[in-house]
Amino acid sequence: MKFVVSSSELLSHLQAISRAISTKSQLPVLDCFLIELSGNTLSMTASDLEVTMTTTLETDETVEEGRVAFPSKMLLEILKKLPEQPLTFVVDSNTLGVDIQSERGKYNFVGQPADDYPNLPQVEEDKASSMRVPASLLLTGITKTLFATADDELRPVMNGILFECSPENLTFVASDSHKLVRYQRLDAKTEFEASFILPKKPASLLKNVLPREDGDVQVEFDNKNAFFTLPNYRLVCRLVEGNYPTYNAVIPQDNPNRAVVDRVDLANTLGRVSIFSSQSSNLVKLHYSSDEVMVSAQDLDFSVSAFEKLRCQYDGDEMEIGFKSSFLADILENIDSSNIIIEMSDPSRAAIVLPFDKNDFEDELMLLMPMMINA
């Protein structure tokens, strides 16, 4: 087997799929990239059994098709330190010896048998659902929700993003019990109603490669696996089993207190004031009055405190509510609108954060649970 390929192009593709490889792999072959040459098309695969990612690129001077597993760490380290140039790969199909010939040198190592590499799961046609989603829309939905997923071994359903398809919209939901994000797209619909929970790792992999892709993504899923087919990549992953909590039940509907505030100003103020919050609680207090909000924090153990006042439009009763500063900062960072709406009912119930400026085809809602304020 022999082929010639651009070093930088090969590195770009391998780095994108290398994130699928686990650092604690139980099978030695899973520390490798599966390399398959068919005609002028080079297919590269990385997997940890739960998530498998494949990409393809066109090669030059192809001789003899074949399959072999290349050690991933060694190959990536070579490519990272090489300037852009054509590389010639020559693989001995009997000994699995690999020669990489560059402009000024030659590198030799031994691959592993491709037959040892696990087979990809296949979609169960009789149980599968399918839809096409623009790459930019899928990227937005994952980016808006991924930060709110949990790391909870006792409730694995919270460790992923819920996808809900319906004739009305496509909904992305994530929650870690402290914050919740619901992002709906009214311009993405299906003729059926279905849902699945995408784990955090494949969601992160998609977030990494989707900015490079144009066009639509083919999404197929059955009871066990999801398949994302992009123009240059394909991702297959095992889904999270279980039923997602009824998230709509925890979203408060009647919120008489409403504030409109500059998002960037609030985020910057929060960043400065939260430095003075207690290290154990990260508590910051927001005190709302007619035309301003006062952000304050204190750490009694070190006798430090800070407060800042911000102009805002506030309609409601004067009130003070407390939040974990890092959670509030996450929400402010993941809203694009220059101004935001914060809706509240009382200091013990969840606050709703909404974008002030939004498009007709999207509905974005973020929820944050408050912290108790000690008198």
Describe it.
There is one protein chain. By secondary structure, the chain is of the alpha+beta class. It has helices spanning 7-18, 72-80, 135-146, 200-209, 263-273, 325-333; strands at residues 2-6, 32-38, 41-47, 51-58, 60-63, 66-71, 86-91, 97-101, 106-110, 129-134, 160-165, 170-175, 179-185, 194-199, 216-221, 225-229, 233-238, 257-262, 283-289, 292-299, 304-311, 313-315, 319-324, 339-344, 351-355, 362-368. A 9-stranded antiparallel β-sheet has the order 14-11-12-13-26-25-24-18-22. α3 packs across α4 (200-209). The relative contact order is 0.11.
For the record, what CATH class of the largest domain applies? Alpha Beta
Structural class: alpha+beta
Total number of helical segments? 6
What is the percent of helical residues? 10-25%
- The amount of beta strand, in percent, is 35-45%
Largest sheet: 9 strands, antiparallel
CATH architecture label name of the largest domain: Roll
Q: In order across it, which strands form the biggest sheet? A: 14-11-12-13-26-25-24-18-22
Distance between the termini: 74 Å
